[in-house]
Amino acid sequence: MAENEKPSLKTDFNATEKVLKILTAFLPFNEPKGTLELARTLGIHRASVSRILGILKEYDFVQQEEKTKLYRLGSTTAVLGKSVNRSFQTRFVSVVQPYMHQLSEEINESVSLVTLADNQVILPYRVKGPHPISVAFNLGDRGAINANSGAKAIMAFLSSDRLNEIKKFYPRLPSFTSSTLTNWEKLIEQFDEIRQSGFGYDLGEYNLDVFSVGAPILDYNNDPIGAITILVPSFRAEVINDRQVLSKLKSATVNISEALMNGSSSRNLKGKKPAFEAESSESQKKTSNVMSPQDRTEHKVVGLGD
Asked: Is the pTM higher than 0.85?
């Protein structure tokens, strides 16, 4: 190439495409790969792969193992991923908020948002019900993956690979009450029922004084991106089996899915509807928990002044 000659748009595109192919070749499990393996798999000349990996390594997009000389994704990609997650969570919560407030006003009970991040059950937003006695928790608290109605509703719609990741992360399921399930096989048996009804339940499995029902928020591929839960004191447990309450919960999650897919809370969904949008049954389910007792979220039955 002449000294003053600029690379063509096609050349730039081809180079960028090679970089993206190499980075995405490590997905989804970031398994170590060598230069030759990447070259053969991607159909890129080995010298090009080696040169690109060298640049990516310099900027920590990949890291090289000292003994094997194999490559993995590096810290910069992790930082980018966290930035994307934070951005999504911020927009996600802002879209969900008005639907949660509306649902709480319609049913007069506490409502919470549940998400999964890094295999942790996160509670990023809540609306406290108007009753003198209601259920409360601190924003940002972590919940129990096997004793949270929202977490169960999310897991029921996960792919088998994603669910296996969570099982490896939580090889043992701790017990919080006499109702907690601590066996993965029994917990997974509930997922078929949840997929049929669209609802997961926590029947005093995390706190004997708190019952809840949760429904997943699904994207256009019917993959779960969160859940909305209704929390009630145990002496108002009949609320979470009320057909009208369940219908309103289901409508809220469907409307949230539509809003997220359309980028607006006022537009109708274009495309695939969540799988459980058909009329749901009233099936109840038991669960287990997935947090160590010292890290558990304190779902509390509180008075109006708390």
From this structure: no
CATH node for 9-73: 1.10.10.10
Render the burial of 84-117: b for 16+ CB within 10 Å, e for the rest: eeeeebeebbebbeebbebbbeebebbbbbbbbe
Give the CATH number of domain 86-303: 3.30.450.40
Give the residue among 118, 169, 173 at the shortest CA–CA distance from 148: 173
Kindly tell me if the per-residue pLDDT of 266 is higher than 60.
Answer: no
Q: Is 128 in contact with 110 (CB distance < 8 Å)? A: yes
Q: State pLDDT tens for residues 26-85.
A: 987 789 999 999 999 999 999 999 999 999 999 999 999 999 999 999 988 888 876 666
User: Distance of CA 114 to CAs 55, 143, 155, 191, 283, Å?
Assistant: 39, 8, 12, 17, 21
Task: Compute, in degrees rounded to 10, the torsion defined by CA atoms 26, 32, 36, 38.
Answer: 0
| pLDDT tens digits along 205-221 | 999 999 999 999 998 88
What pairs with residue 202 in β-bridges? 212
State the distance between the two ends of the chain, measured CA to CA, in whole angstroms. Answer: 73
